[in-house]
Amino acid sequence: MKLTRSNMQLWKTMGLILFYFLFDMTQGDPQLVHVIPVENPTYYAEYRCVTEPEVENTKYSWRRQDWSGLPEGVKAEGDRLHFLKLSPELDGIYICEAVNKNGAAAGSVFRWQKQNHSEL
After folding, report:
1. N or C: which end of the chain has fewer CB within 10 A?
2. Of the CATH numbers 1.10.8.140, 2.40.40.20, 2.60.40.10, 3.40.1190.20, which one belongs to the domain with range 32-111?
3. pLDDT tens digits for 13-50?
């Protein structure tokens, strides 16, 4: 193969593509996010947002799916979501968004308060 200017440019481009591919692979695996119930909650109910792999300096944000934020009676503190009361108005899907050096991902939990009905 004769080395020409266009061949050199092609090899340079191929090298850059390979470099970016390998560089991207070393930045960490894509993260997974899931929400788990907390045993012995400090309030009526509590959930924790967990990332895999766990990474320091992860920033968490919580919202209810059909709201721009959280309804009254629900409080977010970092990776924790606290239900300050039990009420059917708080039923719904809650989403945790986690952002860290590996990127951003979200997990969710469906919260449903079992209701006791008495028949007369």
Report:
1. C
2. 2.60.40.10
3. 333 333 333 333 334 555 789 999 999 998 899 999 99
